[in-house]
Structures are given as structure tokens and as C-alpha cells.
Q: What sequence folds into this?
């Protein structure tokens, strides 16, 4: 008989057994290295979102209270893209700006301090408390962008809270983020319909009622899941706004 046997008290195993063990060890090591790499590559990318936490800057522009507070910042030398960039305005933590406290600034030039939050072409400012003031250096009458109707459309997407999705939480979307998103939207953070395109960048639409009013408390049970919404889309500056009755939003199964 030429079969080899493993003998525990021998210093070295038989040549044939030693080769088999070496091969098995190499295969196991390769699997241990490649499996996590393959799992990482297969995961959905989180996305390039930024929250410049701790970096407070000064900003100025035209304060707009509707449909949700935002700041129109002059965009010089780029007439094709519009005269202004629109920055959503929110308070620290999980809250929107106080409508009563900010109402006197509506349609007027203001200066404020805040922290940038941004993702893609969407920008937000977390405003430092009590930092908004009238900008006395600019006494010209603001020329505000007019709403441009884009017709009725049916869109499928996910309702996200704009603050977390744009950069404060990563990833600030889908079911794992639902509880946080509900708290943010109920606290006044603008709800946005995130429409993911197969062959293009995502589309963001501010959600308002058919009358153009905030819908925060009416969309909470549909946050972070696929929904279909049919409504009138309009462009206000570089903001897209979707007017629809939340009672007619439909879950997508």
C-alpha cells in the first residue's frame, strides 16, 4: 500500500498531505480576502453629501417664506441658469425655522449666519439662532423669480427629509432612516420627493398642497417608502415644486 497517513507525533506530515493542506489554506485565505471585497463592491453607494459641521459662514440674499423658508442668493454671470441659487433654510437639530419669527423678513434682503449642507445641486443652510437680520446695505427692491408651470405629472419616488438626506445623516434615506425622517419632517424640515432616474441625476421636488401650503404633518405615514404622486409641477427659480393633495398619494407595492 502506498497510501499516506497523518501521524500526529511526526515532525512533518507526509509530502502528499502537506501539499493538500497548503492548497486548502491558500484557498481559504483567498476566500477570506475576496468575499468582503465583493460584498463591499456590491453595496449601493451612499452618495456624496456634505455637512460642514462647525464651519459657520455669513450669507446674504432675499428671504422667501414660501413654500418653505429659503434664501435666494445672487448668481452673477450665469444668466442661463437663473439669477439666483435657492438655499433651503432650517434651524439646528430636527427643526424648521419658526414661521412666526421669520415672517417679517419675507421678500426682503437679509444677512444671516449658517452652516452649509449640500448634495448634488441641492443646498441648505442650518441657520444660527437669532442671526437673521435685515440687510440695510441693500435698499433696492427685490425682483423675485416667477413660478413657471410645467404641467401635471405622475412621479414615483421616496419622501425624504431634506436636511438628513442632503448631508446631516448618511445615508438619510430608505426604511433604516424612517424614524429619524419622521421626526425631522414633523419638526418642520421641508419634505422632498426624491425621484431616482436610471439614466440621469436624481430629481428633487418640494412637496406642497394643491394650495401651495406645507404638508409636513400630512405625509408622515408615507415617509421613506415608494410612493406615486400625481400633481402640478412648477419651477420657482431653481426649485422644483410639486402641488398635490397628500390624501391622494399612493403607496407603490
A:
Amino acid at each position: 500500500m502506498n497510501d499516506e497517513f497523518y501521524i500526529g507525533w511526526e515532525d512533518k506530515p507526509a509530502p502528499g498531505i502537506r501539499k493538500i493542506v497548503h492548497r486548502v489554506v491558500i484557498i481559504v485565505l483567498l476566500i477570506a480576502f475576496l468575499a468582503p471585497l465583493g460584498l463591499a463592491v456590491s453595496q449601493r453607494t451612499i452618495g456624496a453629501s456634505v455637512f460642514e459641521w462647525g464651519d459657520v459662514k455669513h450669507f446674504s440674499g432675499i428671504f422667501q417664506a414660501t413654500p418653505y423658508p429659503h434664501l435666494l442668493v445672487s448668481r452673477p454671470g450665469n444668466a442661463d441658469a437663473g439669477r439666483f441659487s435657492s438655499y433651503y433654510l432650517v434651524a439646528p437639530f430636527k427643526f424648521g425655522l419658526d414661521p412666526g419669527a421669520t415672517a417679517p423678513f419675507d421678500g426682503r434682503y437679509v444677512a444671516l449666519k449658517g452652516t452649509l449642507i449640500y448634495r448634488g445641486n441641492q443646498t441648505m443652510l442650518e441657520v444660527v439662532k437669532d442671526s437673521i437680520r435685515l440687510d440695510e446695505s441693500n435698499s433696492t427692491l427685490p425682483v423675485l423669480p416667477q413660478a413657471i408651470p410645467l404641467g401635471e405629472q405622475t412621479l414615483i419616488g421616496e419622501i425624504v427629509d431634506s436636511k438628513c438626506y442632503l448631508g446631516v445623516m448618511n445615508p438619510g434615506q430608505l426604511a433604516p432612516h424612517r424614524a429619524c425622517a419622521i421626526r425631522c419632517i414633523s419638526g418642520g424640515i421641508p419634505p422632498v420627493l426624491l425621484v431616482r432616474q436610471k439614466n440621469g441625476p436624481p430629481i428633487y421636488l418640494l412637496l406642497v398642497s394643491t394650495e401651495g401650503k406645507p404638508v409636513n404633518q400630512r405625509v408622515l405615514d408615507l415617509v421613506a417608502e415608494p410612493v406615486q404622486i400625481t400633481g402640478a409641477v412648477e419651477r420657482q427659480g431653481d426649485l422644483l415644486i410639486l402641488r398635490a393633495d397628500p390624501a391622494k398619494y399612493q403607496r407603490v407595492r
Remarks:
- The CA atoms of residues 8 and 14 lie 11 Å apart.
- The mean pLDDT is 87.
- Helices lie at 15-42, 99-102, 162-168, 178-186.
